[in-house]
Amino acid sequence: MESVAKSALFRELPSVDELLRSPGITQLVEIHGATVVTDAARSVLARLREEISSGLLDSSSLRIALDGLPTAIQTQLRKSLSYSLRPVINATGVILHTNLGRAALSPLALQHSLDTASHYSNLEFDVEAGERGKRDVHVDRLFRKLLADVSTHVAGAFAAPPGGSPAEKGPISTIVVNNNAAAVLLALNSLAEGGEVVVSRGELVEIGGSFRIPDVMTKSGATLREVGTTNRTRISDYEKAINDRTRVLLRVHRSNFEITGFTEQPSTAELVELAHKRNVPLVEDLGSGALVDLESFGIHNEPTVLDSLRYGVDVVTYSGDKLLGGPQAGLLSGRADLIQRMRANSLFRALRVDKLIYATLEATLLAYVKHDYNVIPTLQMMRLSKGEIGERAEALAKALTKAVPSIKAEVIDGESVIGGGAAPSSTLPTRLLALASAEQSADELSERLRRSSTPIISRVEDGRVLLDLRTVFPEQDAEIAVALKTLG
Ligand SMILES: *Cc1c(COP(=O)(O)O)cnc(C)c1O
Predict the structure, then answer these.
(1) How far is CA 427 from CA 171, 292, 388, in A?
(2) What DSSP state is assigned to residue 457?
(3) Which of 18, 150, 266, 336 is most buried (most C-beta within 10 Å)?
(4) How far is the CA of 320 from the centre of ligand 1 (A)?
(5) Ligand 1 centroid, distance to 287 Cα (angstroms)
(6) Residue with the nearest Cα to atom 2 of ligand 1?
């Protein structure tokens, strides 16, 4: 289109002021105020200008668009005044899905944060003494209970800190920061700034969301001392690397990948022995950090925080919203004198968490103390049997087949994934609802599920849409049923 014709079209666009005075819009201004309506009018007009520029509108289609301006502004307004963050239905079967908010919190945990955060609380106030208190006491007391076994077991097993006396060794302490990345940063900065940290080349991992061990190391002010090769690192490699600038031996849980085949890695016990012999603290980034043995939940070989501490690892870092099933947080548990150094670091003040996190974390930990595992959604999902999941999937398949004969629905065997950096091979047997249609591709079907009033997130594999109800809360099944019926 010629630029002359285009400028004629541009001239037909009303100004924002004219628009705000027009009949359909004045009412919107009365209800919502001029500011937001002006914003909405501006974005709608900007869109029209773009469409004219790119030649999408001619004079007759512009006329139609202009007639529709009040409706367009109203739609834009509704969108900008509604929440962007909203619930989705996770039918992927990935229990700790980082893009979908990782661990879902229990109503109990949320109730505790509602009760305490919607009022004043004793967050940093010792009610009995009537004086200032510390925010960590609320969860440290529970971690002490959950990790108590270690404090009694290995009392005296810790090496004396360099220059310190064994009397300084206390029980296990725990502090909370924003996430596990922050926990690693705080540990390395507190213990190794200006010195060296020895780590195996096989553990220089990148975890989803751009957490790279070498980068965190640089930011902490410590120098990375790589040892071994990608697939093989021996205890003697660590030993040779230790010098008078060495401040920490670091072990990192490999999380989202596995090295198989010709591999070698010293055991935790060997590393502990070396660390203590040379008086260098051993820090372990455990990543997921299971608080209880998950064997009975069907998860094998997932190290627990307690296991590491029992071996004598000095400080363990782990996430609050992975296998622990709590809020986003980074936990540092370990030798009291080392944790004290982290608490005294000004970085700790910058990385600390707020009352909402303390409340949801405290409630989650209390459930562990009481062995009430079923109130923690992450653990409850792991415990669901293939049979239970299959029955729910069969019910949905039956309803769908009846309502939409063009979609073939069957229930097949499959695997749910733990996710969140648990052992990548950790899966749980499940039953999947598999959908295929002769008229629509699997991608189309899954897109339509995403457009449901509560978006349903599924997997697409081998030309089929797969729904794993392990990660779907049972009360959401009815919503899925409704959405499936509209797929025809
Ligand atoms: C997940 C993970 C992290 C990052 O934890 P965030 O809580 O997401 O910051 C770091 N290290 C390991 C080994 C992990 O698995």
Answers:
(1) 35, 18, 17
(2) E
(3) 150
(4) 10
(5) 5
(6) 287
Q: Are 420 and 299 in contact (CB under 8 A)?
A: no
The residue nearest atom 3 of ligand 1, judged by CA position, is 287
DSSP string covering 409-443, please?
A: EEEEEEEEEEETTS-TT-EEEEEEEEEEESSS-HH
What are residue 183's phi and psi, to 5 degrees?
-65, -45
- Shortest CA distance to 242 belongs to which of 203, 191, 192, 278? 278
The verdict on the CB of residue 76 being under 6 Å from ligand 1 is no
Q: Is 326 in the pocket of ligand 1 (CB under 6 A)?
A: no
Residue 314 phi/psi, 5-degree rounding, is -75, -40
Report pLDDT digits (tens) over 274-324: 999 999 999 999 988 899 999 888 888 888 999 999 999 999 999 999 999
CA–CA dist 40, 32 (Å, integer): 11
pLDDT tens-digit series, residues 99-120:
999 999 999 999 999 999 999 9
pTM of the model: 0.88
Q: DSSP class of residue 471? A: G
